[in-house]
Amino acid sequence: MKSYLLPEYMVERDHNRCIRCKACISQCTYGAHYYDEEEDMVLSKDEKCVNCQRCVVFCPTHAITIKNNPNSYRENANWTHEVITAIKKQAETGGIILTGMGCDKPYFTYWDRLLLNASQVTNPSIDPIREPMELRTYLGAKPDRLRIDVEEGDYILKTKLAPQLCIETPILFSAISYGSTSIRVHESLARAASEYGTLWNTGEGGLARRLYKYGEHTIVQVASGRFGVHPEYLNISAAIEIKIGQGAKPGIGGHLPGEKVSEEISRTRMIPVGTDAISSAPQHDIYSIEDLAQLIYALKEATDYAKPIFVKIAAVHNSAAIASGIVRAGADVIVLDGIRGGTGAAPRIIRDNVGIPIEMAIASVDQRLREEGIRNRVSIIAAGGIKSSADVVKAIALGADAVYIATAALVAMGCTVCQKCYTGKCPWGIATTDPWISKRLNPDVASKRLMNLLKAWSMEIKEMMGGMGINAIESLRGNREHLRAVGLTETELRILGVKAAGE
Amino acid sequence: MKGLNRISNPYGDDKVIDACSLFGMMNLKGKRFSSRDPVEAIANMHDRGNGLGGGFAIYGLYPEYKDYYALHIMYLDQDVKEKTERFLSKSFDVVFDEEMPTREAKVHDPPILWRYFVQPNKLKPKKQSTDDYVAEKVMRINMKTGKAFVFSSGKDMGVFKGVGFPEDIAEYFCLEEYSGYIWICHGRFPTNTPGWWGGAHPFSILEWTIIHNGELSSYGANRRYLEMHGYKCTMQTDTEVIAYAFDFLMRKQGFPIEIVSKILAPLFWSEIDSLDADSEQKRLLAALRQTYGGLLLNGPFSIIAAHHGEMIGLTDRIKLRPLIAGMKGDFFYLSSEESAIRLVSPTLDKVWTPRGGEPIVGRLETRSVIEILA
Fold this sequence. Notes:
Chain A is built from 15 helices and 23 strands. Chain A is an alpha/beta fold. Chain A folds into two domains: 9-95, Alpha-Beta Plaits; 167-500, TIM Barrel. The relative contact order of chain A is 0.15. Chain B is globular, with a radius of gyration of 21 Å. Chain B has a seven-stranded antiparallel sheet, with helices on one face. The A-B interface holds A 119, 121-124, 126, 131-132, 134, 136, 138, 142-143, 145-146, 148, 154-157, 159, 161, 164, 370-371, 373, 375-376, 397, 468-472, 474-482 and B 18, 191-192, 214-215, 217-225, 227-229, 253, 255, 258-259, 266, 268-270, 280-281, 283-284, 287-294, 296, 298-300, 317-318, 320.
């Protein structure tokens, strides 16, 4: 069948600049560039280009420009280029359209409608370069009260706190599985998290043994496929995360194609080489809240009650009520993953239409748990679409304890958010397990880039806090007085618990 | 000589000073004394206020009714007074009530001011403590109409406050008629909240009173923490949360001030980290921050807090507002400025500047002042 699809991008090459070095040809994993010997020219096949910018960055003479294809269908507010393309694609394949990364539509971002406060006159701002400024955060259940006895004039703490995780910045790396990415990505995340004093997350594909040494900074995931879950995996971790859902694809499972399941991945995931790794939509031992409680306590038993248990859900319509149930089921940390959350592969229609924005989820969950008087019994991590340090500050002011970042971490390592992760051919060597391509990611460099990102964002957070006259992050947590909104409706303001700018 | 009469500010407006004034005076033997010294001292710091709020709290105030909760209530109209009184007589046995004695003074738009001496009646649930019962009813009145405010609710103590300079408030409430063993006094320069009678300091719940200079940048976090524990913040000001924080930590959680100060103005993590790894103190300090982080008071503040038997001074942990302590014989002083202490007691046995985050406590039974060093 002849494809009626138009190429998305046009590759323009300045032949005066091109020195025929063929770097673009070797860098492009999609085969968009080729060398024509007769003409002695490097040429391109536009339809293969995904606009990942790999060739552009590596072209030594800056000869390449990638442009959006100016050809498009007749302008129509409803039957847009994207809509028509999707239908043609499905007519040609009969399949679900896959995509990678988070929702790319503009209509769900509240961060950009929220503005932060700063001190003027009545309250001095604090300079974080010259004064202490504390970002340290402890994740885990806090007791309702402490019992303190006086013994021989000394105060003795009688309450034993549930296990607490100390992070030096309220930013953790979110779940990215081994299999969707290479071990080099895991190693880079693990090294950066360990060095900075925060945590990273294995995702649902298990953890390669040679990374066990980073266990103190590792959150190990237990998802519906139960890949790579065994007692040692649980016990070397800092914490265990039960993955119920994911913001990019609430309500559906995952599928790692067999060709990605190499020898080492098969060993780590504990499945035969070359078999598809299917994560079912639900966890088949969790059909209700009491089942979740059982799994939480099974994991606590297996690890001697030494590890906090995270439960991660996609932010959906009744997250607040679900979160309350999760707290009562015994979770130590709740992870809320909003609709803009990323993924290696998801049906585009699900990614862009299912779930709710993370801002609304944080606000309603935090408020609900406070109303029930159980907010202290759990930490809240917000995930899905955190793009800057300002988003981190806003998430915490709305009520989160910390945030997860994954897309931002990938971007720091080289990702350009081209949304083709599901092809397994990531030219930046990230979303691929191909040994040849994945060598492009050097963990020495990538971990340094991740460290720099954590450092830069942390410094910016300190500057913003200092501006508000706050020198400890606990005074920012849930402090919605430091947020004002522009351009929101009364209902949105009420749910967010935020006043309008000028109020 | 030319220009002698020139004033440096040609616009006729007064120089802008941003501050509140705090003064506290306590007789450590519990001997009651008159309003003379406290009023003189707070009046001396006139320029730190702007006439939009002044107030006093006095302990040992009503010895003849010392077993009864003394409710001081302000009403914005007669109608709400009648409604509130119906509620009071339903919830309490009222042994005595009267209009609060006042006289003409330079105060702005005073509300109706009434005081009641009460005990919970038999409607109080058996399981609930009398304090909790009274606190709950106070919150309910303050929430209900927006026109009736209980601004004092402890036993043998009372708050007097309003819109005006503190010396005028003292005049208005005839404070020369009263005596007590602790006086705390406040002159206000409101910035973030309107100057209204309920918004003047001290803030009080049961026997706890607080006066405050500064602005809490943690207000939103503190408020939501306290709301989770049943407190309703109705006074449109950040100081209210300090009063509730003290009530919550000392009365409900039962902590002494040594512990409370480490929650409100805790050590930095770097200081906690430097303690011996296995030490009991390290475990305790970390657990306090982890558990009660929502009550950390952030931003510039100095406060004087009092309840029966104790007067406490505390500043934020990087000391962005002033607080001076002084001792003379059995008298213990806390003040925004040393000049105010010197005015009423020119010679002092000791005068010092407490460190940021370090509480200074005058305690009745020990007849001493305790400095708690980290």
